[in-house]
Amino acid sequence: VEAGERLRLIETLDHLHPADIADLLEQIDVSQRERLIELWGKDLNPEVLSELEEGARDLVLATLTPDQLSSAVQELETDDVVYLVEDMDEPQQEILLDALDDADRVAVEQSLTYDEYSAGRMMQREMVTAPEHWTVGDIIDFMRASDDLPEQFYDIIIVDPALKPVGEVRLGKVMAHPRTVKLSTLMEDEFRTIPVNQSQEDVAYAFNQYHMIQAPVVDEHGRLVGTITIDDAMDVLEDEAEEDMRLLAGVGDEEISDSTWAIAKRRFPWLLVNLLTAVIASIVISLFADTLEAVVALAILMPIVASMGGNAATQTLTVAVRAIATRDLTASNMMRVVRRELVAGTLNGVAFAIIIAIIGMVWFGIPMLGVVLAIAMVGNLAVAGLAGILIPIALDKAGADPALASGTFVTTVTDVVGFMLFLGLASALLL
Amino acid sequence: VEAGERLRLIETLDHLHPADIADLLEQIDVSQRERLIELWGKDLNPEVLSELEEGARDLVLATLTPDQLSSAVQELETDDVVYLVEDMDEPQQEILLDALDDADRVAVEQSLTYDEYSAGRMMQREMVTAPEHWTVGDIIDFMRASDDLPEQFYDIIIVDPALKPVGEVRLGKVMAHPRTVKLSTLMEDEFRTIPVNQSQEDVAYAFNQYHMIQAPVVDEHGRLVGTITIDDAMDVLEDEAEEDMRLLAGVGDEEISDSTWAIAKRRFPWLLVNLLTAVIASIVISLFADTLEAVVALAILMPIVASMGGNAATQTLTVAVRAIATRDLTASNMMRVVRRELVAGTLNGVAFAIIIAIIGMVWFGIPMLGVVLAIAMVGNLAVAGLAGILIPIALDKAGADPALASGTFVTTVTDVVGFMLFLGLASALLL
Description:
By secondary structure, chain A is mainly alpha-helical.
């Protein structure tokens, strides 16, 4: 991008959606990113900021002047400003907050007092409310007179004199009725409020489960403090599924725009954990060094037993983690699901025992080797089923994220059990 | 649940949201499920049907009489009916379709002509449209006069005389302006239509990326045929993330409500694939049988090399699969990301080479064993990085789902390379 092409660039970017510009900024490399932002400068669309991932966003913020920053944030809704401000350090926060007008500043500061990952952080302050006695005509007149309506809203929240929400009316319903109809007669049957301290995960679950579009957020006294719309819930829902997937694979919160160093560093700890667990498996094997020396076929077949156990455990684990996340695995069906996993693991264990026994016998011509392989396979797949379901359940009960039970830990169990069974039986039956 | 308690049961269920009832039905076991549905019978809320997973739904449908079924479907929106009907066999479909009134029947049959997993299947027919010359007053009068407005809609779709959508107006905006204002002056700047044949995945991506709430669906001539709302997109978005996770773990489309037999059968094919790939790794090991017999330490340490490679590959793979799904990995940054994975893999390879070399030397007292381990570790982690990124990219280019590159395949590559390097070097340097 040459300096002379600035105008053409701005024209091109103007046609793109802020989310696409953010993606573009994330995909080009760091030096190109700096050049682009310098060129773009004051014409930066503030909405791009709230679309950017954290790493790329810090870089963009650093290249903006305080003036550019202030004018940018004034155009954003309060929930987007909170999203920007929460990851900043104090002096940067101050600059941004100072740029806001008083009402917005108070709103943002108030939001920041709620826990990160809580409904209080997700909600926006901008909403449309009406007292119970208002009619369709009243709210239409109110909205026509108002010059600061929120950009996104789908419901009118009906509140009582103590500012407690008592119901919500869909905009479509308001418009479908004559001016004299009372709003309170048009309220939805289903009405759910969200406590301001509820976790983002629970909020997203509720939106998804009950097909909600917008919901009022209330403080501990039941008073209305904000509102959450479905697009915020959708972001969280996707994040949660992705987080489970990353945890299962032992990857942290990395982004495709991160540098080589950053990703190498982030993956190191998990690989270190894996090294330690792999060493445990090796120690188990070393107990049977004499047996291995006597029958080298054992060393050759050993990885098959481990691999089958690991895979079967990962299958169960993945299903269990998702079922816990989507609340499909609860106290009422837990025993049934655990029993099912154990039996299903054993069934597949028997099927593969027959296959592997034949492979073992034909390949090495030692019938007893087939028997050892078969028994180890049944035992290992049964344990895989149990470990795959019990470990995430236990983590969940202990208040940890069940996805932490990732491959590495569950696989250690199946490795240890698999090697023990296989080499132990071999010692007893083959020597 | 006793027969006499029927009334109490119905009362309890009446207070639950259909989605919660569906979850309850999925969580109890099959015989309880049958009893409950028999008891509940004609009072069944039709919306429960569209919340159920396929397996549980078939069971519920089977216990309902044709009369119950017909009255149930008449209350549903067309997209929910399509969702129910698409998995049924012909005679059952007929019964359901006959229960609909003519207009709905045509709409449902039309939807069924579109590809499964396409926008045409997701969309609903119920929507509110207005010609370009209408004013705020016109649409309000139209809506007040209409007695069949859709349950969920957030935008008025503005169409030209050829029924092509030209823009959309948010309900909030309509209400905020006087009756004389023309709707065409209130249209959103951003306006995206969805082709009826677009894949569900692409539709969900667009909703998420552009924070859309509702979008018109158009046929190949650009004419309006339906509309998709954000709650439908949210369902798909979650399904897609979950599908990636399941594919990566080698689990099919199973549900927590499936029977033991069903899950054992569904997991078998993937375990069989894994067995074949594990046998390939074993064949590689068998090439070095003499070396293993001579140095039993190799058999003991072998799983560590394989395990580290497998884990590093899974990390890269997971990030790559998600990045492809969210369109963050594109042609423009592909080379950079591939290079990054290779370098990051090598960096961690060097770090762990040092650690593992020390472990190898101290444990077995053979300095050269440390050297062999170190070289194998660097090579294996570098290959893990490459395989983890290149295999999903290749699958994507070939038009397959990149998540198919699951653990099993990528791990085979790292196993084979790891064993080759480790045992090959050992043969050369230790014997």
